[in-house]
Specification:
mainly alpha; two-stranded antiparallel ribbon; 7 helices; 2 strands; globular
């Protein structure tokens, strides 16, 4: 086996190993490929942080691992607002769909939603390929 092929197989093995941990709910993916331990139960703050982490590095649409995390949020959160945002992020193709924008608009204008939820909905609503510089500042504040 060539050195190049061996390196590729090692890369593939570790990539798949990391993907399995994320799908099992044991990690949180960033576009940099690193995995960070997270609780398997999705709490409100964690869902917002997870979605903000995905959005801050977004380039056109979420990758497969990020979509799995978003699907987990949809399944596990009790928050209707978080489900709407996560579903809109799953459906992203350079921008939010018109049907998702209608739901995001409702979240953005819901006074009962907390500030981070409203801002995150607004960022997804206004997305054009990737978040703006000011969006990234807001997303960074949500992650901290």
């Amino acid at each position: 086996m060539s050195k190049k092929m061996g390196s590729f197989l090692l890369f593939l093995f570790f990539s798949l190993l990391g993907s399995q941990a994320i799908i099992a709910g044991e990690g949180h993916a960033h576009n940099d490929g690193h995995s960070h331990a997270k609780s398997s139960k999705m709490h409100s703050g964690n869902a917002v942080q997870t979605m903000a982490s995905i959005m801050i590095n977004l380039n056109h649409y979420p990758n497969a691992n990020e979509k799995e995390l978003l699907k987990k949020i949809v399944k596990t959160t009790d928050s209707r607002h978080e489900k709407i945002i996560a579903e809109a992020m799953i459906n992203l193709r350079h921008k939010a769909s018109s049907s998702d924008k209608a739901k995001l608009d409702m979240v953005m204008n819901d006074g009962s939603a907390n500030k981070n939820i409203r801002e995150l909905a607004g960022i997804v609503y206004n997305l054009s390929h990737q978040p703006s510089g000011s969006d990234k500042k807001m997303l960074s504040a949500m992650i901290e």
